[in-house]
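2024-03-11 09:14:02 DEBUG pipeline.ingest accepted 1 chain
2024-03-11 09:14:02 DEBUG pipeline.ingest length=296
2024-03-11 09:14:03 DEBUG pipeline.predict start
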Amino acid sequence: MKTINYRLKTRTLYLETLFAFFLIVLFMISCSKDADKKLSSSNTLNYIYVENCPEINIEFDQANKTVEFLIPYKSSLSIQKVKLHLDFSENATSNIDPDKEYDLTSPLIINIIAEDKTIATYTLNSKKCEGGKSALLVCDIQKGWLPVFRDASFFLNSNIVIDKAFDAKVPIYYIMAASLKGSPSWDLPEILHYYENGKIIDKNDNNSFANTTLHKELILNGISRVYVIGLASMGCILSTCKGGALLKYDLTLISDAHDEPTSYWEFTEQDIDKCNHIVNDSGIGKLVLANDLEFK
């Protein structure tokens, strides 16, 4: 009887050990699959930073594994001497040396490497865009920000500028605060002139160039000069002017066609003129009166 019990216990222990081993094997296979998934999910290049050249617009096509640099007309970048900094999975490396200068006059191959294997290959192309054209940026002139301090003169001068742009066949971009979308506050006021060839671009930042399609639109259309009007002087207008200057645009602020909403308790009518002084004195851009404006 004792022998039978011993054999049963031994057999049970053997089966339990075998089952435990089986579970361990399954766990290891599962971990291996997870590791493979993690490796395969790391084959995406997240971002490329071009050293000291914020004016570059970088277009990713993850499906075709291509990257295109749209280089503005006035860019300071010499495409024969470009330093690249890549951002990708922390498990990976690449064939790009951040201290080396690369020649982008021909396509550059970027390999993403993990565990000594190339897990993704990107082709980087560059496109030097034409320049010399002009555009008008009409920033945040929406019902939700009214009234403004210099209401009558502001709309009179804004319409003068918009009409001149239309007559000169200068593209007009109406930059709209997306925070007002879905309500009547988002709309353009009836008093403001709007032409059907105008293009509307939504934004979520004070700077009209930040996280919008504006910079790409301007580059692709050969625009290197921008003229700015709108609201609010010390907010979106000043921020957009600074953003345009950083991107190397030849920028002009229409000094009597921007204003401050009266509902902004932290700003006063004097801040309209303060914005003009900052743009002019800091070398951000030029100033011109609406009546004196001639589009180039």
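2024-03-11 09:14:41 DEBUG pipeline.report The chain has five helices and 13 strands.
2024-03-11 09:14:41 DEBUG pipeline.predict end
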